[in-house]
Amino acid sequence: MSAPFTVLRYELAERVATITLDRPDVLNAFDRALKDELLAALRRAANDRDVRVVIITGAGRAFSAGQDLKERLPPSDGERAPTVSPAPLDVELRERYNPIVLAIHGMAKPVIAAVNGVAAGAGMSLALACDVRIASEQASFIEVFGRVGLIPDTGSTWLLPRLVGPAKALELMWTTDPVDAPTALALGIVNRVVAADDLEKDTRALAVRLAAAAPLALALTKRAVQRALETGLAEALDYEASLQGIAGRSADYVEGVRAFVAKRPARFTGE
């Protein structure tokens, strides 16, 4: 049996797993426990055949404010030293943050970020790592790293330029200016902006719709788009053909054709 989560909530309904970062008193900032539990939750969702789509969101008024900086501070005079000293930043990234981004990138299922409030630092990177982002009108995005003398990490230097272009990405990273939800939509950082009261409903509607689609086709499409970002046209065409061959041998393809001809909804099983 999986260990219970303490700083996030994991819920499964209608083939959609919802992962809610649950440290609202600190704007869902990442301490060691939250990083470890988020990775465990992503792996659970990836390995569960009953899960077809994943939603990541935050409790309270923030998506995530990024790293909990209090975890990085040395103890003040008179304070007890922490039981476990914080790892050097490069080690922390390689051991805890980077596996989260790679788990989302490599998951053969759609991952949707429901950005309910501020997404700053590693919180913004987490949102960028997801396949689709739906933002509340109250959401904002901040590449805040420069304010504490750091470079953007957790994938931001790879992810953000692919969404907004290198020049705009550098501007956002260098200035650390916040980006509100309408501007994020105009820049292509998010797919859509909805009223705060509609975020959960609208995100879930998309997730349930995708959960009814052919799982293999969704997974292969995600792989094809990821590969296309790294290759030339000829290689992308060849890779498409290879993946289409896999999709074309699936039971879901047969079911999809039969349903289309019969003018009825398809019942995809993932086989």
General description of the model:
This protein is of the alpha/beta class and 271 residues long. It folds into two domains: 8-211, 2-enoyl-CoA Hydratase, Chain A, domain 1 (Alpha-Beta Complex), CATH 3.90.226.10; 215-262, Lyase 2-enoyl-coa Hydratase, Chain  A, domain 2, CATH 1.10.12. 45% of the residues lie in helices and 15% in strands. The chain has ten helices and ten strands. β2 (16-21), α1 and β3 form a beta-alpha-beta unit. The longest helix is centred in the middle third of the chain and has 18 residues, at 89-106. The protein starts with 7 loop residues before the first strand and ends in a 9-residue tail after the last helix.
Summarize the structure.
The chain is α/β, with parallel strands linked by helices and 271 residues long.
